[in-house]
Design a protein that fits this description.
Blueprint lengths: L1 E3 L5 E3 H25 L2 E2 L8 E2 L3 H11 L1 H17 L6 H25 L3 H30 L4 H38 L3 H10 L3
Antiparallel strand pairs: 1-2, 3-4
């Protein structure tokens, strides 16, 4: 079965699968590049916590190709990040990043898949940001204390002034960037990106 792109080109199921894998690989590479190229502290009281927009391509992968694709890009990019720029955090940092970022990626992509609208997207991104921020509280209390050996009182003292605001600012900023990109794609193709995705997926059946 064939499907037609907005530009008038045909694309069959096999071609779409190849293009999907190519685009997911591109988003994974883009995530790693953004992590490497753009890093800066945003809280004076915690300069070791650095903002980076690497989560944006992960969110886009989920919104464009579904939660499963978004999680796959999240795991792949997080693994590469751990082996390169964030090697000091080790497997503990990898697990924390994957668990927290998965919420930021999966929640909006799931809601956006059910109802393809800017309102649903905004609600999903906001909810994903809040859940990610909340997840980082027990993750830090458990993983950082038990496995990294940081005293519990030190972690607790940093929750309100540093850990919570940092993760909230980071997740909301990356969500806003993803929202703008999806809005641009919708305007470019004059249709909701997830509607285009669903038409492509039908060509695989």
């Amino acid at each position: 079965m064939k499907t037609f792109l907005p530009e008038g080109r045909e694309e069959n199921g096999a071609s779409f699968r190849v293009h999907k894998l190519t685009r997911l690989a591109f988003l994974t590479c883009l995530s790693v590049i953004l992590i490497l190229a753009i890093r800066f502290p945003i809280l004076p009281q915690a300069p070791f916590l650095e903002y980076e927009p690497g989560d944006v391509p992960m969110i886009l992968a989920g919104l464009l190709y579904g939660p499963g694709a978004g999680l796959a890009v999240t795991v792949a990019a997080s693994l590469i990040q751990t082996l390169t720029v964030s090697s000091g955090s080790g497997p503990i940092g990898l697990v924390m990043h994957i668990v927290a970022t998965s919420a930021l990626v999966a929640i909006p992509s799931f809601l956006y898949r059910r109802r393809c609208s800017s309102g649903s997207l905004a609600k999903g991104l906001l909810l994903g940001s809040l859940v990610m921020t909340l997840l980082m509280i027990p993750l830090n209390l458990v993983m950082t204390v038990w496995f990294l050996g940081v005293p519990r009182q030190v972690v607790v003292s940093m929750l309100v002034p540093a850990i919570i605001p940092f993760n909230l600012i980071k997740s909301l900023s990356n969500s806003a960037l993803a929202f703008l990109v999806i809005g641009g794609l919708s305007a470019r193709f004059r249709t909701c990106p997830c509607e285009r995705r669903e038409s492509y997926e039908k060509s695989e059946r």
